[in-house]
Amino acid sequence: ALLAPEAILLVEGEEDELLAHPSLDFFLVGLLMFEAFVGRPLFKHYRDAVRQVEDDEIVIGTGRCKEQVAKYVLENTLCKHPQDRFTAKDLLIMLPQIGDP
C-alpha cells in the first residue's frame, strides 16, 4: 500500500479531509526507499497498512538494512504523524551520507 497514514485514515472513514502537504510525499519516498534498502515492501498488503496505522506506531523492520544512516532516514520519513517526518531540507542533508545499504 503506497499511502501515507493520513490518506489511509481518510479512505477508512476516520478522517474527514486530507490537505495536500509535502509530508505526504516524504512518506511515499520513505516507502520506496524502504523497499530499495530492505528488499521488501513495508506493508504486505493494504489491510496490514491499515492495522499498523490504527495502532500506536508503524513498525519499521530495518534489520536487513545494515547502513545506519539509511536506517535513520527510513525511521524519520516513515513516521505516523506528518509533523514528525523529515522535511525536504532534512532529506537533502541526509541522502548524500547514505553508504551501501
Overall description:
50% of the residues lie in helices and 0% in strands. By secondary structure, it is mainly α. It is globular. The chain starts with a helix and ends in a 7-residue tail after the last helix.
The structural class is mainly alpha
Assign an overall shape.
globular
Level of helix content? 40-55%
Distance between the termini: 23 Å
Q: Please give the count of helices.
A: 5
Please give the radius of gyration in angstroms. Answer: 13 Å
Order of helices and strands: HHHHH
Average residue-wise pLDDT: 87
Strand-residue fraction? under 5%
Which stretches of 5+ consecutive residues score pLDDT under 50? none
- Main β sheet profile: none
List the helices and strands and how they pair.
Layout: H1 5-11, H2 22-38, H3 46-54, H4 68-77, H5 88-94
Helix pairs in contact: 2-4
Primary descriptors:
50% helix, mainly alpha, single chain
Short description:
The protein is 50% helix and 0% strand.
